[in-house]
Amino acid sequence: MNRPNPFPSADATPPEAQKSPQTETRHGVARTDDYAWMRADNWQEMFHDPSLLDPAIRTHLEAENTYALSLMADTEELRQTLFAEMKGRIKEDDSSVPLPDGPYAYGTKYVTGGEHPKFLRTARDGGEETILIDGDAEADGKAYFRLGGVDHSPNHRRILWGQDSKGSEFYSLAVRSVGRDDDTDRIEKTGGSGTWAARSNGFFYTRLDDNHRPKEILLHRLGDPASEDVSIYTEDDDGMFMSVDGTRLNDWIMISVHDHETTEYRLLPADLSDLTPKIVHPREEGLQYDLEEGGDVFFVLTNADGAKDFKIMEAPVSDPSKANWREIVPHESGRLILSIASFSGHLVRLERKDGLPRIVIRDRKTGDEHAIAFDEEAYALGLGGSYEYDTTKIRFSYSSMTTPSQLYEYDMATRERRLLKEQEVPSGHDSSHYVTRRLQARSHDGEMVPVSILYHRDTPLDGTAPCLLYGYGSYGISIPAGFNTNVFSLVDRGFVFAIAHVRGGKDKGWDWYETGKRAQKSNTFHDFIAAAAHLVSHEFTSHDRIVAQGGSAGGMLMGAVANMAPESFGGIVAEVPFVDVLTTMLDDTLPLTPPEWPEWGNPIASADDYATIAAYSPVDNVAALPYPPILALAGLTDPRVTYWEPAKWVTKLREYSTSDAPVLFKINMDAGHAGASGRFSRLEEVAFSYAFALKVAEKMDTELKG
Questions:
Q1: SS3 content of the chain, % helix, strand, coil (to 5)
Q2: Cα(117)–Cα(548) distance, integer angstroms
Q3: Where is each Peptidase S9A N-terminal domain found (predicted)?
Q4: Residue pair 618/649 in contact by the 8 Å Cβ criterion
């Protein structure tokens, strides 16, 4: 493909990375890594204190930032304009609709210019606000700050809250009395949230080990030193995640031990009368189940007995073991039940059918069911939280790619729907100016891949429009076709914005996930390439006008399609990209490696898994190809996708590429996986990515399309 270079400057040269070859042989296959030195030997310590990073590595990363900024220097004014536009679509003094719990209602609000939320409460029916946690005040003076969980005690006197000040996701937990600014009971190296005991005299939390894995559930009693916390459960298997939660009735503490395929629950009374957790059903490979308390029963969402798209069972609280599970909502192929919520008179489920979500209400007494209806062709739907069990009212959110988010209260008994709040776009938004559609792209094996698109009604559909094509496709995560204020900065400039709902997500049921993982992972990549081809064949865009975008595992998707079909894309944006898949899955000291073997395969134990991953791992498949311009983004203290993965990838891309298209690498030296933590500072990173996309598409006009 003969395409113009949007980065013609010859003044800037990329940093040169020294080669220090390290060869490793596995399953009889020798593999050499020239850039393994980029991995900090002291990464565990560096995540706690970034100043400990090897100076040679720091110098190289800072040189990468200098190079990226130099190539993007001519977009500075554009980036400022994009930032102002995106900020202008955010209601600065926004607030949530407080959620009732007993005598109070709890919510959040932002103030004009504020980066972080303030957590507050009022009397149940409204009135004067009491600020519980002020995110802006807590963030003051910190280069990075992110709030974790914020939870009030059952007696409403105290707040348990978490914070991360490094971006490494090692959170500290602390307790604050309502009406005070000082904290007590501080605990370090936690997962970021905790669960109160029923009597408000202590809380349960998850402790992370030095490798950032949840290894132990502990009970902290208020006023006691953390050294005296009671160990409730320790997990010996490095391949399992672990979490602790309460129930809406506040009767039980639930410990979930799980990976991507298997679940095991343990229960103990929330009143601390017995600190020995009881197993509901011991882990059984491939068996998944989730629990929801329903008074004298537990509801069980499970894939037991071949229910691939899940079914709902119930079991007595006195003995909820699997032998006592009784089916109440049978399995239906193609209808994936995503989650359930129980109330005194109703059972609510969020499910996905025909690629779209829906909410179904079940009367617990009669078994009658009804679904809440929606009209648009593609939309996003979410169940709201609820503190209370004895109620007929739930909340849900609704949006589409053209419709701002709407929060509704729904009465499950009367079926009345009441709009509580509609997302405001201060700079203005007229849905009639935009078009959203749901397309179907035929993949390499005949599967039809849903593609959600958004464009301005005046955008010509003759193949000349640029396109931002987003994809993810892992862990069963479905990307909703919801409202995103940021993308209108592209759409108003003539872009088509598209989401490819590729295999590896659950958009079309559990099979859609399973046929996009492990030995069938390549389907994810083929689906994305097919989505691009479909958009071109139907003249929504052209290949050299498509900028592909994905983050984390979606960044791995970007790396794979860059190797498989570089000619299909005019540019690629890979955010915190998981691109050194084989190396990471071979390193069992890294935080997520053992828990993610069920998703990707275990190349240490299996030669077949090794070969499968080696066949697509982006770093391992970089070759002499005409790569398009590529922008990679990363965070120094990211425990999920370590910074050295994209650092090695971009270096190798420059070494092998046969085109003159540049490869840019921008790393946030003060953040981790989620990037900048403030709601506005994060927009600066989005503006950088969008400016890159506009530069690639040769759309440098900073004026909004009329």
A1: 25, 35, 45
A2: 32
A3: 15-423
A4: yes
The percent of residues in the chain predicted with pLDDT above 70, rounded, is 97
Q: Are 586 and 602 in contact (CB under 8 A)?
A: no
Spans of all domains in the chain = 112-287, 295-425, 429-580+617-696
Cα(514)–Cα(505) distance, integer angstroms: 9
Q: Which two tokens stand for residue 522?
A: 């390549």
Closest residue by Cα to residue 582 from 603, 557, 551: 603
Which of the residues are catalytic?
Answer: 552, 638, 673
> Residue 330: which of 306, 350, 298, 359 has the closest Cα?
306
Q: Which CATH number fits domain 295-425: 2.130.10.120, 3.40.50.150, 2.60.40.1730, 3.30.300.20?
A: 2.130.10.120
Give CATH for domain 429-580+617-696. 3.40.50.1820
Distance CA 542, CA 235 (A): 51
Would you give the distance in Å from CA 563 to the centre of its chain? 25
Decide if domain 112-287 falls under CATH 3.40.50.2000: no
Residue 502 in 3-state DSSP? coil
* 64 residue type, one letter: E
Instruction: For residue 388, give the 3-state DSSP assignment.
Output: coil
| CA dist., res. 207 & res. 111, Å (int) | 33
Length of the chain measured in residues = 706
pLDDT bin (cut points 50, 70, 90) of residue 603 is very high
Look at residues 312, 302, 311 and name the one whose alpha carbon lies nearest to residue 281: 302
Quote the CA–CA distance of 424 and 421 in Å, as a whole number: 9
Q: How does DSSP classify residue 245?
A: E
State the Cα–Cα distance between residues 630 and 636, nearest whole angstrom.
19
Q: What six digits make up the tokens of 207? A: 């402790």
Q: What is the pLDDT, as a whole number, of residue 616?
A: 98
What residues pair up with 340 in beta bridges, in sequence order?
A: 349
d(CA 187, CA 204): 11
Average pLDDT value for the chain:
94
Run of H or E including 77: helix 76-88
pLDDT in tens, 217-251: 999 999 999 999 999 999 999 999 999 999 999 99
Q: Are residues 377 and 338 in contact, defined by beta-carbon separation less than 8 angstroms? A: no
Q: How far apart are CA 197 and CA 154, in angstroms?
A: 8
What is d(CA 93, CA 109) in angstroms, rounded to the nearest whole number? 7
